[in-house]
Structure formats: C-alpha cells, structure tokens
Amino acid sequence: MVAQVFAHLFLRPYPWHRPNDPGPLDGSAWLVRPLHASSGGGLSRLKDGLRARLDATRNRTLSLLDRVSDEHLRVRVHEFYSPIGWHFGHVGRTEEYWTCGQALGKPLVDDHLSWLFADVADNPKDNRTRIPERDGILRYLDETRCRVLDALEEADLEDDNPYLAEGYAFDFAIQHECQHQETICEMLQLIQQRDSQSPSFEPLPWIRGVESSMVAVSGGTFEMGCRDRNVYDNEKVAHPVDVEAFSVGRTPVTAFDWTEFIADGGYHQPALWSACGWKWRAESAAEMPEYWIYRDGAWGTIGPFGSRALHPDEPAQSISWFEAEAYARWKGARLLTEPEWEWLRRRASESGAIHGIDGWGGKPVGQGEPSEDGLHDLAGNCWEWTSSAFLPYEGFEAFPYDGYSKDHMKGAHRVCRGGSWATSPTILRPTFRNWYVPTYRQGFLGTRLAGVS
Questions:
Q1: For a FRET experiment, which of 100, 312, 329, 344 has its CA 20 to 30 Å from that of 195?
Q2: CATH, domain range 214-451
C-alpha cells in the first residue's frame, strides 16, 4: 500500500510538459464537429458534408496507424481487446458493410477480409491475429473507401430507406470510426504498460492548484435524449425528465484528490466498498488507478507513448466504477445519476470542451469556459462514471443491429458520460452514452461527485 502524507496543500501554478510526445494528429480531423450536414442546401450539400467528414475522420485514423509499430499490429495485449491492427481494418469493413452492403445491397469487396475484420462470434479475438500486415491493411482501407465514396455518389439520401435517409449509414460509419480511434489510443497505452520494464519520469511538484469544491445546482424539467435521426439508438427516444436540485463537484476528481484517498488507506478499507467492489479489489490487488506509478515519493503514469509525470490537477483516470463508488463513499458523497449529468451538460457551452490528441493525456481541470452553473470539463478531458445502469429509454428500438446497444442493456454495465481527451468532437454531444462493466479501468475513465441529500 502506498501511504504518503502530502504537506504541500497551498495553491501555486507551475509549468507542465509531456516527454515522449509524438506531436498532434492531423488537425484537419477536428473538422468533424457536426453530426451531419444540414440538408437545407439540398442533397449536394449533404453529400459534400458527409464526404468531408469521411475524409477528415480517415486522416485521423491513418495518423494513428503511423504511430503503431509493425511488431504490435497483430499482437493481443489484453483479453478485452482484439489486436490493435484489427481495429484499423474493422473501421473499413464496417463502413463498407453498412453503406454498400446493407444500404445499397452491393457485394463486399473481399469476403474473407470482411469476415476477418468483423466483430462476429465465429471470428474470436484470438483468430484476429491472422490479419494482414500493414500494407494489406492499408490496401483494404483504400479499396473499401473507394467503394464507400462511389456508394455515396449514387445513393439517394432522400429515400425512405432507413439506411439512406439523411445519410444515416454514412453517419453511422463516421461515428463508429471515431469510437475506434479512442480504442486505439487506449491500446497504445496498454502496449506501453506491457513493454515498460522500468518506467521513469521527471516528477512535478505535488501541489494542488485547483481546490475541490461543490456547487449548488437548481433542478428542473428537461428533454433527455435526442430526436436526431442519426444519433445512436440508445440516445432515443427523447423524453421529459424531472431533476431535483443537488450539489456537484466543480471539476472532475483530480489526481491530487485521488492520492489523498490512497494516503488515507482507501484501497484497504472494506467499509468503503460494496461487496462486489471489495471482491474485485482483493482479486485485482488494485492499489491505485490502472496506469499510475509511485516511485521515490513521486507520482507518474504510463501514457500512450511512455511514462510521464502525473499533473496533480489533471483528472484521475483509469479507474473502475467500483473505485469511483468507493472514493465517493470516502468523501461522504455519491456519483451523479445519468439524468443529473445530462442536465448539467445541456447547460454548458461547447467552447468549454477540452479535447484533441495533442498532449496525449488529460489536461489540468478548470481551464475551459465554465458552464452557467460554474462547472468545468463536462465535455472532454475524461469520461465520468455515473451511478446509472445502462438501460433503454422508454420506446427504445434497436437499430441498425442488436449488438451495439440492446445486448448490453441488462443491468450489468454502468454509464459513463462526457468524453475524454481522445474522444472525437463528432460524439462529444450531451446525449452520447458510453458504458462499461464495473471492473473496467483500461479506458480514460474518471468521475465527478454529487452531494448526498
């Protein structure tokens, strides 16, 4: 157990930099903000918007592929994941399958590779190590993209075909690819964790720069969920929700906050944990968040491109739902419900969002524009665990297939909201729902506290 009493609790800013930073991705990739182009300018404008977003999204994917070594492309580094190279081929397969195959009824360019890059039961993750090498992946991406662009050219996006109307299948492909970009960033971090024999870093002064505080928020009635045709099925159907007044953390829980929990023995106090959470903690031997390092009195973390110092004011990330729950109990607080979180997010401006793969990690909290409630970092920086199970809204209908949402709506998963530094603006919308099992901690997952009534 790490037990350290931190004496430096006064406030003082200081400069921060990241070693091993490979530089930002292609900036044009951040032009993908709209969910879909307005059809107000006609079919041509809608298609032009989709084409630009397809190109920008693919540029970002290829920039990520450039950062993956050949030796890692076809190797599994975690039981939860396929090989990292599989994800690159999978985004090409998915967009061809839905736009060419399902929307237009066309045959796929390569049946064998389409199966090998598919997430289906008869293609288990161990089998996916048989994917082509880099040149084969790139060739497959080129071939499928050419067919997708041809399909966009001929598609009637004013048809009542549910895959074609308003460009649904093309929008679905873009959002899907953006999600796998974040998965690839997570896997780069896992690769570093596996390969780091003796991680080193230059520590930062462990001084709190952002004071933790709670803000009182008024309640009200709002429409939760989304009416847009092209959002994911689990974001529908929009419905009225009443939220009572509550108090909430001004920022996500920070790394400094979390080290106080560690120093107080939070990982060794069964009373703070649920029975399932304590069982997980004991079996996993968790002592701190997944990628953290404690060495010679200093805190660091393993990032996607090597180890670095933790900043005390960056969000505490790579925590499971069980850890978030225990931390909240230690603070005499609770996790936000999903309706409370969306109520807060809808009152925040887009300019307050923190996102972009330029620093390859979370940024110190409190830097963006605050919401009307005085809250920071509601969009981007880190995902925030909520207390809510991932369940369907009333009127939910699975589309375009059961496996994306419906198969996970059995109460075993918990909802995360907000997006991380690796989340594309395409899906940084107030209604987007992410979900994981309570033991999962390999993502860019943090939390924000709410007050107990």
A1: 312
A2: 3.90.1580.10
* Residue of 374, 372, 354 whose CA lies nearest to 363: 354
Contact 31, 24 (CB under 8 A): no
Determine contact, residues 379/348, Cβ cutoff 8 Å: yes
Q: Is the Cβ–Cβ distance between 291 and 318 less than 8 Å?
A: yes
**Whole-structure pTM over 0.85, yes or no?**
yes
Report d(CA 95, CA 59) in Å as an integer: 15
* 29-53 CB burial, b ≥16 within 10 A, e <16: bbebeebbbeeeeeeeebbebbbeb
- The CATH number given to 27-195 is 1.20.120.450
Q: Strand order in 246-249's β-sheet?
A: 214-217, 246-249, 449-451, 333-335
For 153-187, what is each residue's pLDDT tens digit?
999 999 999 999 999 999 999 999 999 999 999 99
Q: What is the pLDDT of residues 290-346, one digit of tens each?
A: 999 999 999 999 999 999 999 999 999 999 999 999 999 999 999 999 999 999 999
pLDDT of 4-59, one tens digit each?
322 222 222 333 344 455 665 643 443 334 454 444 568 899 999 999 999 999 99
Degrees to nearest 5, angle at CA 384 with 382 and 385: 140
Provide the residue type at 31 as one letter.
Answer: L
- The 10s digit of each residue's pLDDT in 185-241 is 999 999 999 998 788 899 999 999 998 899 999 999 999 999 999 999 999 999 999
Query: Concatenated DSSP letters for 349-362?
Result: -GGG-B--TTSSS-
Average pLDDT, the chain: 91
How is the chain split into domains, by residue range?
Answer: 27-195, 214-451
State the sign of the Cα–Cα–Cα–Cα dihedral 430, 434, 435, 440: negative
Strand partners, 446: 384
The answer to whether residues 421 and 356 touch, using CB atoms and an 8 Å cutoff, is yes
Of 448, 431, 440, whose CA–CA distance to 175 is shortest? 431
- For the record, the structure tokens of 207 come out as 């001084």
**Nearest Cα residue to 179 out of 80, 60, 23, 79:** 60
| Cβ-count burial 166-188 (b if 16+ within 10 Å, e if not) | bbbbbbbbbbbbbbbbbbbbbbb
Cα 408 to Cα 55, 173, 414, distances in angstroms: 31, 20, 10
Distance CA 56, CA 30 (A): 7
Which strand ranges, in their side-by-side order, compose the sheet holding 306-309?
292-295, 298-303, 306-309
How many angstroms separate the CA atoms of 195 and 234, rounded?
37
